[in-house]
């Protein structure tokens, strides 16, 4: 299988699709509304790394060129979902009405997902074909130069047999439709062994997995700090309180275990071994899209002095994730346009459990990301960021 190249629409600036799995969820709704708001100049691009100076000459698609669609099993229209988020303080007051037309347009492009519990089960091949057809029809109908598929659906448990879980069905459909794929969740997606050959032969770029937005973001900074200062970490424990769809999904112990695997990997990779302690995730529906994450770090200092660092992270998951989703969609589109394929390890900056090889320290990941920005330039990577990354040994 070979990837189809992006073909710009004649006489007009090219537009690119962002096909979201979980398109009516909080993260997707925030990303769609936020993209429209920033493109219209209603709000600054706070939290979008691709809108900072190192990325201005990378040829990334503009926010105004992005067209949204997706799959979901929910039927709550995007405008209504946005109103709920505004009532909960996730979106600014008045924003749903200001970008109502964009939300309606995106909602028209959302197709039913699956498989649905209790419904007659089509074969996996039939589902993949149907999902891929939806994506191809979206590209043709909107006259797009291409599309990227981004999974922002709720976390699913790790598979216990050889069958493909829903996230892997969508991932296979993305590749079959000739689209780059980004897994922003800890769900299996392209990590399923049955998809390894398809991913390798597709000629498409892909990235993931599990967006790094809060507690693990801090861990990827603090872990290297302890290691570099020769401070011995004895135990590292954490607690997450959250509500909304993620809280409900993570109330399932199997889904929580899939989520925690990425959090633990960061500590192993940065400290060299897993310290004592674990992360507990508690569903608190009253919190909605807001979450609180505590970390308790016990460490030894000089002459065995026992000390503790405690951190508290309070934030809104959707507002933290949405700008990263937009970043990743733009970067994946540009990578495909430049003919890159395979795992985009340089995007590890965004993930708890990145594909490919690369460092786990946030600072080193950022250096790789800037080197990647150089590769995306039309000049072939000639510039300060690319050469700087090469000098640091982080460019690829």
From TrEMBL:
GO terms for biological process: inositol biosynthetic process; phospholipid biosynthetic process. Residues 214-318 form the Myo-inositol-1-phosphate synthase GAPDH-like domain. Residues 375-396 are annotated as: Disordered. Pfam families: Inos-1-P_synth, NAD_binding_5. GO terms for molecular function: inositol-3-phosphate synthase activity. InterPro entries: Myo-inos-1-P_Synthase (IPR002587), Myo-inos-1-P_Synthase_GAPDH (IPR013021), NAD(P)-bd_dom_sf (IPR036291). Gene3D superfamilies: Dihydrodipicolinate Reductase, domain 2, NAD(P)-binding Rossmann-like Domain. Belongs to the myo-inositol 1-phosphate synthase family. This is Inositol-3-phosphate synthase. It comes from Streptomyces parvulus.
